[in-house]
Specification:
- It is a single chain.
- This protein has helices at 3-14, 17-26, 29-43, 48-54, 58-61, 63-66, 72-88, 92-107, 136-155, 168-175, 177-193, 198-205, 217-232, 238-261, 272-278, 288-297, 301-315, 320-325, 335-354, 371-378, 383-430; strands at 110-113, 123-126.
- By secondary structure, it is mostly helical.
- The chain starts with a helix and ends with a helix.
- The model has no long low-confidence stretch (mean pLDDT 85).
């Protein structure tokens, strides 16, 4: 099987409608988690006077954190359903509402208090335990299940159609009625009559993958290898990693945020921010180093031009111009460092955090920040995170350098040959 065949197969996987909807849908977590993390950062500014001032308001300022990361599954149900519904050209709003209802039935357990307990008045309450990262697999299942039921009813014209004079929004609501009944009945039967805990079943099914969400060496290395190797075939690595690893990474971050909110030390270092700020410096493949080498040490015109064009985006972790401009994809010069550099950076970061030389990540900093600044903020303003990020950039520079040198020398040779051919052609035209 040649590279073109493998690339085509992987491209088909990447373009799968479900994986694409999950990837795009889960991007809703980014702004939500950043907003929630802002309050985490606010509560942990490394200034004694500020901490003393903010302490009386700590409980109040922790509320936005609970409504961000702790409720991410609810946001993802709506967003993933909406993206998949748009792919099929069915109404995303009414379909997403049905998916939310299915999710609540399957994943959320009502708690009934007949009398006051622990300061809570009698009534019905809902546990938020499955509304966060722990419920993401159920969120994905409910989104796909709901869209496919609605699509089946729509394509077979099994919907209630209202007269032309009825407002479009009302008509769409009634169109969702029949598939909605089936969706809710199936969800109810599975949960109440069959007594199935879908959330626990899904967690059990994916439990082998959950190993890579633990604070282990393989958890730091294997995702990097997976993502970078997939990238080399022209497929965005996070298309595969997002639905598989994000639930575990964000569950760990959620645990850290909760610990900090209660005045305790964070408990996990294996989070998405571990990779964002200490491994993917400059983007997938840690390509900020390559941009620096192209700009500073490049001798060929092509290298200098690419370095000048890509250095600013690379500083802000945007490396598509570099990946597709050189290109790095299927490039024998850069395939090895593209995989090896971030793998080495992940190993160094693992050791540093395992030995508690750098604080664990407790917040989601905007991914477009320069690496050292983002690392500093994500670790609760630990200055050692800046040092670790810079050390990792240096490691990446060292790994990329010999491969860059071979590439640049070859470019110089090609440019000289092209210049000589142009000169020969010009002479022949004059004669």
């Amino acid at each position: 099987m040649n590279f073109d065949t493998v690339s085509a197969k992987m491209g088909q996987i990447a373009n799968n409608r479900y994986l694409t909807a999950i990837r795009d849908g889960m991007s809703v977590i980014i702004p939500v988690s950043i907003i929630g993390s802002f309050f985490t950062i606010l509560l942990n500014l490394p200034i004694v006077a500020w901490k003393n001032f903010i302490q009386p308001y700590a409980a109040m300022l922790s509320v936005p954190m609970y409504y961000s990361i702790n409720l991410m599954a609810i946001y993802c149900v709506f967003s993933i359903t909406s993206h998949l519904a748009k792919y099929y050209k069915i109404d995303p709003i009414s379909t997403s509402v049905l998916a939310e209802m299915s999710f609540f039935i399957l994943a959320i357990e009502p708690i009934v208090l007949d009398k006051a307990k622990a300061g809570m008045a009698p009534g019905t309450y809902m546990s938020i335990s499955n509304m966060g990262a722990q419920g993401l697999f159920t969120a994905i299942l409910c989104a796909i299940f709901t869209v496919e039921i609605v699509r089946f009813f729509t394509e077979h014209n099994l919907v209630i159609k209202m007269p032309d004079g009825v407002p479009a929004a009302v008509g769409k609501s009634f169109s969702a009625l029949l598939p909605g009944i089936l969706i809710i009945v199936i969800s109810f039967v599975l949960k109440e009559l069959c007594n199935l805990d879908i959330n626990k079943i899904l967690i059990w099914i994916f439990s082998p993958i959950g190993y890579f969400g633990r604070d282990t060496f393989l958890s730091a290395i294997v995702p990097v290898l997976l993502i970078t190797i997939i990238w080399l075939f022209g497929v965005h690595g996070m298309v595969i990693a997002t639905p598989i690893l994000y639930p575990y990474w964000y569950a760990n971050l959620n645990a850290n945020v909760t610990a900090v909110a209660h005045g305790h030390a964070p408990v996990h270092f294996m989070t998405e921010q571990f990779f964002q700020w200490f491994v993917w410096v400059g983007g997938a493949g840690a390509t900020l180093s390559l941009a620096i080498l192209l700009l500073v040490l490049g001798k060929s015109k092509f290298s200098k031009t690419m370095g000048a064009v890509t250095i600013v985006p690379a500083i802000f972790n945007i490396n598509e111009p570099l990946i597709f401009g050189i290109p790095i994809i299927m490039n024998p010069y850069f395939a090895i460092p593209f995989v090896l550099a971030p793998t080495a950076m992940a190993a160094v970061t693992y050791v540093a955090m395992k030995l508690h030389l750098v604080a664990y990540t407790t917040a989601v900093a905007p991914w477009t920040l320069p690496g050292p600044i983002g690392a500093w903020m994500a670790t609760g303003f630990d200055w050692r995170a800046i040092v670790l990020c810079l050390v990792n950039i240096l490691i990446s520079l060292i790994i990329y350098y010999p491969f860059f040198k071979m590439f640049d020398n070859n470019q110089v040779k090609l440019e000289k040959e092209a210049q000589k051919n142009e000169g020969d052609l010009s002479l022949s035209e004059q004669n």
